[in-house]
Design goal:
Blueprint lengths: L13 H10 L13 H5 L4 H8 L7 E5 L4 H10 L5 E7 L10 H14 L6 E9 L9 H4 L4 E2 L5 E7 L13 E2 L5 E5 L6 H4 L6 E5 L2 E3 H10 L5 E5 L2 E3 L16 E5 L3 H10 L7 E6 L7 H9 L8 E7 L2 E7 L5 E7 L8 H4 L4 H4 L2 E5 H13 L10 E7 L22 E7 L6 H17 L4 E5 L2 H15 L7 H15 L1
């Protein structure tokens, strides 16, 4: 019979009814309901339930974590029939919490054993596990030789999170697929990286693993259309006789590299010249664990020629130094427990950093160190600098003596100064005086600069209050301070 928009739903064909059921799955992502749509439609009436529980594509998504119902997981596997599936299993335990109850481990193994016979019809497979949940017999199908056939697999994510000082000797995964769209590995290897990727592979993320550079090169060559590559704490071992020359990946748009040693970074820069990747981000954290030469070389690669911005800011864990291009598409982030600025002299001997910087964003106390570095380098001007951003955070500011001994430095192209008021505590008079003294250096060089103040209302009011006190030029305040304070307030009033 022909259907119209007014046709009652109870007279629709079974095929069309199931199509409507499936369309409701899109609403599950909005998280507006406690129950997913496949559960809801199966509880309306007997007729709907009959078709809902027997329609495999309606049950193609299984998400299970410790404490979830085993019966519900088994029901989804049964109802999915022969449909391709997405399976997400998270059986990880928090590092600083007690071991999980034995019942949780038994339940997890029951779910994994039930899933293993269905590997051949998985589209996506995500498995996150910690030491307590690993069992060689339960995991055997993922490590078997020959590999378990997974012809429909397009996304693979395996994340092993060890909770003990020594990692378990978990063998590499053997996965029988050949054209993943996405590969994500943490602390876990696969038997042959190149065999599981292909022309459809767009994203690869490797974290906390060691692999031969021959395996890495074969992986890249087998995935010529890769767009996004992420490597965190990855070690590339040199292989004898391997050509690690440049590989052409014309579709590669983004590469993010974090906490790799210098040798790995140098190899990576030869294999994939980082200055040719549109979006390249390099990060080194916990540098106190690395020799000084490691992070100095980290800042050298790739060439600093493209650097146009410098950001130096305090965090809860120390100080972060970020060097990046003006469009933010290429950057290097160095996180330390102390300011790395005084150590930059080694870098500056090779690159004319201060000649090319167009934007500097720093905490106020880091600005003092930066200016000292400029003076020590013998610079009399920052010829390309267009903008300066100074952050005042009373919670990270010390009670150091006021510094008013700057040499004259020119800022011929400077256009804007941003004063950013951050943190929970309101700025003190001492901190605002240090700001004024810092701005005096700029004010003397050019009085045409535009000043913008950003921050919460209370912080801004407190800043203006202190500026008024300074502008009155009392006995212990220099006339130069008062002049700059009035200049800043004039911009605020405009």
């Amino acid at each position: 019979m022909p259907y119209t928009p007014s046709t009652p739903i109870n007279v629709l064909s079974d095929e069309l009814l199931c199509m409507i059921f499936l369309a409701t799955r899109d609403l599950d992502h909005e998280k507006r309901r406690w129950l997913d749509s496949n559960i809801l439609v199966s509880h309306v009436c007997r007729h709907w339930r009959l078709h809902a529980v027997s329609y495999g594509p309606l049950w193609d998504d299984l998400r299970w974590h410790q404490g979830s119902s085993v019966d519900a997981a088994l029901a989804i596997l049964l109802r999915s029939g022969k449909a391709t599936m997405d399976v997400y299993i998270d059986i990880t335990s928090c590092l600083h919490k007690p071991d999980p109850p034995r019942e949780n481990i038994i339940d997890a193994h029951a779910v994994l054993r039930a899933i293993m016979p269905h590997l051949a019809r998985l589209r996506s497979f995500s498995l996150s596990f910690s030491d307590e949940y690993f069992d060689a017999d339960v995991f055997r199908p993922l490590h078997s030789s020959p590999s378990s056939s997974m012809p429909h697999l397009r996304c693979l994510c395996v994340r092993y999170l060890p909770r003990r000082n020594s990692r378990l000797p978990i063998p590499p995964f053997t996965i029988g697929c050949n054209d993943l769209q996405e590969l994500n590995l943490l602390n876990e290897k696969v038997d042959n990286y190149a065999s599981i990727v292909g022309p459809s592979t767009a994203r690869v993320s490797l974290e906390r693993l060691v692999m031969g550079n021959d395996d890495f090169i074969r992986l890249l060559k087998a995935a010529p259309n890769i767009q996004d590559l992420r490597m965190t704490a990855v070690g590339l071992l040199r292989s004898v006789g391997v050509d690690d020359g440049p590989i052409a990946l014309p579709h590669l748009q983004t590469i993010h590299v974090e906490d790799v040693l210098r040798d790995t970074l140098e190899q990576l820069d030869r294999i994939l010249p980082l200055d040719q990747v549109p979006h390249a981000s390099l990060t080194m954290k916990r540098i106190s664990a690395h020799p000084r030469g490691e992070w100095v070389e980290f800042l050298r690669v790739p060439s600093l020629v493209s650097v146009e911005e410098m950001h130096v800011h305090s965090t809860d864990f120390g100080v972060e130094l970020r060097l990046q291009t003006l469009d933010h598409q290429k950057s290097r982030l160095l996180a330390a427990v102390w300011s790395p600025l005084p150590q930059l002299s080694t870098i500056l001997l090779d690159f004319q950093l201060f000649e090319i910087l167009r934007m500097i964003s720093v905490d106020l106390h880091e600005w003092m160190q930066l200016i000292r570095l400029v003076e020590g380098y013998g610079c009399t001007a920052l010829p390309s600098l267009r903008a300066v951003s100074l952050t005042l955070d009373q919670s990270t500011a010390g009670d150091s003596d006021l510094d008013d001994t700057f040499e004259d430095i020119e800022f011929p192209t400077l256009e804007r100064v941003h004063i950013v008021l951050a943190g929970l505590n309101l700025p003190s008079l001492h901190l605002v005086r240090q700001l004024v003294l810092s701005l005096y250096l700029i004010y003397v060089a050019t009085s045409e600069v535009e000043i913008e103040i950003r921050g919460g209302d209370e912080h801004v009011e407190q800043l203006i209050k202190h500026l008024r006190v300074i502008s009155n030029a009392s006995d212990d305040i220099l006339p130069e301070e008062a002049e700059v304070a009035r200049y800043v307030m004039s911009w605020r009033q405009e």
